[in-house]
């Protein structure tokens, strides 16, 4: 067992991830084995959910350690299939401390009807995103085509890094959101999912 796995800092990261999974599950954002959750560790590695488990019922051994290359520190551990999308965000911005991915109904359905972005306008809750100070503005949420080749998907996401205040959506799949801490990432996820749910309801009204 690596030294990091024995420290309180590792335990903190695991607890954060387990609590985030439970919270996402309460909202119905991680059906079946969908979603993945990670936190940056003080030594630069990443704690991330093991592939294929239910994220609402995580136990401590459902979280494993990977390097910034996305490879498991412990041979034989299988990290999330989408680990490289997490690593990409951590590599892009050293201030990012947590990354969340969920599969909500709203993000799945809206992205299937969208072009290259979903634009959110006139909602008070837009102010949950960094740099947004008024409802009287538009927040662009990029929509990327789904791809089972995650390394290739990273190359499509790359040009938008640094200009996604609310996160991004993968078409027919789900959202990626991040923050300096797990609490900040969860607040942004809640804000984005609330707005996507509003947008879906609005469109059902034909508006
Ligand atoms: C239930 S299928 C969902 C997966 O294909 C994937 O998109 C996902 O979010 C979870 O994959 P995982 O490898 O458990 O992190
Ligand atoms: Zn997914």
From TrEMBL:
<dbReference type="GO" id="GO:0008270">
    <property type="term" value="F:zinc ion binding"/>
</dbReference>
<comment type="similarity">
    <text>Belongs to the aldolase class II family. MtnB subfamily.</text>
</comment>
<keyword id="KW-0486">Methionine biosynthesis</keyword>
<dbReference type="InterPro" id="IPR036409">
    <property type="entry name" value="Aldolase_II/adducin_N_sf"/>
</dbReference>
<feature type="binding site">
    <location>
        <position position="101"/>
    </location>
    <ligand>
        <name>Zn(2+)</name>
    </ligand>
</feature>
<dbReference type="InterPro" id="IPR001303">
    <property type="entry name" value="Aldolase_II/adducin_N"/>
</dbReference>
<feature type="domain" description="Class II aldolase/adducin N-terminal">
    <location>
        <begin position="15"/>
        <end position="200"/>
    </location>
</feature>
<keyword id="KW-0862">Zinc</keyword>
<keyword id="KW-0479">Metal-binding</keyword>
<dbReference type="GO" id="GO:0005829">
    <property type="term" value="C:cytosol"/>
</dbReference>
<dbReference type="InterPro" id="IPR050197">
    <property type="entry name" value="Aldolase_class_II_sugar_metab"/>
</dbReference>
<dbReference type="InterPro" id="IPR017714">
    <property type="entry name" value="MethylthioRu-1-P_deHdtase_MtnB"/>
</dbReference>
<keyword id="KW-0456">Lyase</keyword>
<dbReference type="GO" id="GO:0046570">
    <property type="term" value="F:methylthioribulose 1-phosphate dehydratase activity"/>
</dbReference>
<comment type="pathway">
    <text>Amino-acid biosynthesis; L-methionine biosynthesis via salvage pathway; L-methionine from S-methyl-5-thio-alpha-D-ribose 1-phosphate: step 2/6.</text>
</comment>
<comment type="function">
    <text>Catalyzes the dehydration of methylthioribulose-1-phosphate (MTRu-1-P) into 2,3-diketo-5-methylthiopentyl-1-phosphate (DK-MTP-1-P).</text>
</comment>
<dbReference type="GO" id="GO:0019323">
    <property type="term" value="P:pentose catabolic process"/>
</dbReference>
<keyword id="KW-0028">Amino-acid biosynthesis</keyword>
<dbReference type="GO" id="GO:0016832">
    <property type="term" value="F:aldehyde-lyase activity"/>
</dbReference>
<protein>
    <recommendedName>
        <fullName>Methylthioribulose-1-phosphate dehydratase</fullName>
        <ecNumber>4.2.1.109</ecNumber>
    </recommendedName>
</protein>
<feature type="binding site">
    <location>
        <position position="103"/>
    </location>
    <ligand>
        <name>Zn(2+)</name>
    </ligand>
</feature>
<dbReference type="GO" id="GO:0019509">
    <property type="term" value="P:L-methionine salvage from methylthioadenosine"/>
</dbReference>
<dbReference type="Pfam" id="PF00596">
    <property type="entry name" value="Aldolase_II"/>
</dbReference>
